Amino acid sequence: KVLTGIDDLQQVKALEMQVDTRENSLGNFGAYLPNLRELKLNNSLLVSVRDLGTTLSHLHVLWMARCGLSDLDGISSCSSLKELYIAYNNISDLSQLTWLDHLEVLDLEGNNTEDINQMQYLGLCCKLSHLTVKGNLICLKPNAESAEEPDYNYRAEVKKLIPHLEYLDEIPASQT
Predict the structure, then answer these.
(1) Which residues are CB-contacts of 145 (< 8 A; sequence separation ≥ 6)?
(2) How far apart are CA 139 and CA 21, in angstroms?
(3) Where are the beta strands (DSSP E) in the chain?
(4) pTM to 2 decimals?
(5) 127 in Cβ contact with 103 (< 8 Å)
(6) What residues does each domain of the chain span?
(7) Which of 43, 83, 139, 172 is least enclosed by beta carbons within 10 angstroms?
């Protein structure tokens, strides 16, 4: 109530805060905010997405940039997500995102995605239309073991794995 400035938490549709879940779990705070649609946690310290609890199934937009995340375990409890902004974390495994049936926008800039095959998981997000991957190793080479190939084109490779993608790194995906 102090953060939102609103007594009736039913009215809260958007919330921005910084948290440190190393000391305090957020528990199931989403239960108190049944109409929360947008949550900004940028520059927080989150040990795991699980620290958000399991009561954010009604959330449409989630920002967790620069939160120290190394995996996305628990993201499936945010089943209504349409937009997910997780830039500048340490995420390499994208398999958990396959559970997000409504996902349209995903910002993965500056993460640790180093295997182009991780994009196959995003191919299963049938509504995904906007993807940002710049600043990941896959932009330079297909996987961590391979040498840099002069004719490697990450844009073409991503488009192959996610044919329905409309924008890649803010440029029409058709431009390879």
Answers:
(1) none
(2) 32
(3) 14-16, 38-40, 61-63, 83-85, 105-107, 130-132, 167-168, 171-172
(4) 0.94
(5) yes
(6) 9-172
(7) 172
CA 12 and chain centroid, separation: 22
Q: Whose CA is closest to 107, among 117, 99, 97?
A: 97
For 36-79, the pLDDT digits (tens) are 999 999 999 998 898 888 899 999 999 999 999 999 999 999 99
The model's pLDDT over 27-36, given as tens digits with 9 standing for 90+, comes to 788 888 999 9
Q: Kindly report the backbone phi and psi dihedral angles of residue 129, in degrees, each rounded to the nearest multiple of 5, phi listed first.
A: -120, -25
* DSSP label at residue 131: E
**Other CB atoms within 10 Å distance of the CB of residue 20:** 12
Q: With contact defined as beta carbons under 8 Å apart, do 24 and 47 qualify?
A: no
116 and 109 Cβ atoms separated by less than 8 Å: no
Q: How far apart are CA 164 and CA 49, in angstroms?
A: 27
Looking at the structure, give the CATH architecture of the domain made up of residues 9-172.
Alpha-Beta Horseshoe (3.80)
Distances (CA, A) of 142 to 28, 115, 119, 147, 152: 39, 6, 11, 9, 8
